[in-house]
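subagent[fold] <- orchestrator: predict structure for attached chain, return tokens only, no commentary.
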Amino acid sequence: MTLRRAIALLLLIGGVAMQGCANVKPWERETLAEPAMQLDSNPTVSSCDDHIYFSREASKGGRGFGGGGCGCN
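subagent[fold] -> orchestrator:
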């Protein structure tokens, strides 16, 4: 009886996990590409903030790109 329950539980978990896999139609991608859905909703402001931060710190790097503190890299 416990083996049947374990198999049923695994099938239930697998079925629930498969519900999260959805195919996005090409015409639905427009909704997902809205600026509010982006990680960085305003890249111009972020760029200015990064410029100010790195100018103040006299260094380059720290946001996904390399560089040393002296700026020689």
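orchestrator: received. Logging for downstream: Helices lie at 2-18, 29-32, 43-57. The CA atoms of residues 32 and 38 lie 8 Å apart.
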